[in-house]
């Protein structure tokens, strides 16, 4: 392409500081270095983790940054040593890398990677090095991806090549939210046929967890949320029963225990609230119940009575649904194309990148499931 090897000036939504609106700016995106790939971003979702960094985590060292980590695009150019991906390929940027060589990548029990930004700067949610500048200042690449920019640069270990005919304004959701919730049910919880499940929180991640429980063959899927407007979408994705905790005077764990004669087999917390994490654990059946923490947060400690675990319950966490990213995301794209997983049902709003603050407001108020931002024409 004509821009290969050159600095690209493009539009991006910059988060200059915590707890403030994003600002549309012209930024400079450097050419890809050795083993790097520069991507023209076509579409991106707005995920709660973007809001978490902006409004909850608020690490000053994590700003200024370009947020966004749920995108899809087309390769503009590649750096030296990149052989498996070429300009023109459709790709999904990955916030979890897969180098294939580290102790984590070689272990089938985890999807972590030693080469990820999270290995060194987990708290600030970005690597120190960046290919972005604006007004003469370095701009951090949030979660290594920064899909709220028309162009971005990633190492090849954090890019998944996908099918040439993939619909980018849908499969971008597999870069985070849908894969996270779906995999938490399928991989981490390992939901079994005929089991009883409860999903706490019906945002995109929670609804994807509902879908995962359905596809795993659960006989009952109890959807728990204080926003009853989300129940219809949950039903369409497989939920069989619905509970609004605000309509009960007793703890939700007691409500679920009564509904299930002792507790659910599997519970998935998809809110990012330490209080809800405890409720989800307490809602599990003694002896074998499994509770999975899926919601992202790192600002508060959680707690539970030891007897919950002594009595045989399992409490575990799930990152990106347990999927090894480069291996799994292309397969998930094929599953979408084959109709095995839903994506269209999650999209409630479509906007341009310039409307990103409106999209953030929709998510803050719970008025959307997923907003897809159109970033560049395909």
UniProtKB/TrEMBL annotation:
What cofactor is needed?
Zn(2+)
SUPFAM superfamilies with a match to the protein in the record: GroES-like (SSF50129), NAD(P)-binding Rossmann-fold domains (SSF51735)
Name of the protein in its database record:
Enoyl reductase (ER) domain-containing protein
- Gene3D superfamilies, per the entry: Medium-chain alcohol dehydrogenases, catalytic domain, NAD(P)-binding Rossmann-like Domain
Record keywords, A-Z: Metal-binding, NAD, Oxidoreductase, Zinc
Please give the family membership noted in the entry.
Answer: Belongs to the zinc-containing alcohol dehydrogenase family.
Q: Which InterPro entries match?
A: ADH-like_C (IPR013149), ADH-like_N (IPR013154), ADH_Zn_CS (IPR002328), ER (IPR020843), GroES-like_sf (IPR011032), NAD(P)-bd_dom_sf (IPR036291)
Q: Name one GO molecular function term.
A: alcohol dehydrogenase (NAD+) activity
**What is the superkingdom listed in this entry's lineage?**
Eukaryota
Q: Which organism is it from?
A: Coilia grayii (Gray's grenadier anchovy)
